[in-house]
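WARN  no MSA supplied for this record, continuing single-sequence
INFO  ligand: calcium ion
INFO  echoing inputs
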Amino acid sequence: MKAVSKILIVEDDPHIVHFLRSALQAAHYSIDVADSIAQALERCADYRPALVVLDLGLPDGDGKTFLKTLRSFSDIPVLILSARNSEDEIVGCLDIGADDYCVKPVGVPELLARVRVALRHASVMQQRDNVIQVDDLVIDLFQRRVSLGQQELHLTPKEYDLLALLAQANGKVVTHRRLLSAVWGAEFVDHTHYLRIYMGNLRAKIEQNPASPRFVVTEPGVGYRLLIE
Ligand code: CA
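INFO  complex generated
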């Protein structure tokens, strides 16, 4: 089954919300709504949408303010939907990181076409970003595959999840707590012995010399780190 793409609608006009919600739900998207900048930021963190459809005239400020803030921590595609149709406004939004701009009123076919393009663009970006290579170790986060040299490695799901978390951290240390809660669950955050066992198994598969690892290094008392140049 294809995963449902989650779309966050940021809009304060209930009629437009109703229109967008019906059109997008009919096309099998999952919908969440925020009617202010403050709520939109909160929903982006909690709901983790695949796309944001953004109005510009919001009760607590201009949608561009939200877009700027969002771009400081996220690349998710943003489709602006606004009655403002000046070229300056449109270019201004694209300049600060909007993916597309739609002038209201918009018909359903056009809306859906633009949503599809924005989502496709994002998934291509993600595929490209999601292959991480460190020397001859290749971690394909999109296909959940790991290879070393020319050889594909057979990791267990938990070994893979641990390696993927480290890979996504871009060379930063990932704490014991974060690894345990992400892979085993919040109730396991004190079970650091799990990590010693599973990291041992993981290293046996990816490291030439597990006693002196060149990929996954231990930060004593803190966590683990994938050595990315
Ligand atoms: Ca508005």
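Residues 131-226 form a domain with the Arc Repressor Mutant, subunit A fold (CATH 1.10.10.10).
INFO  checksum written, moving to next record
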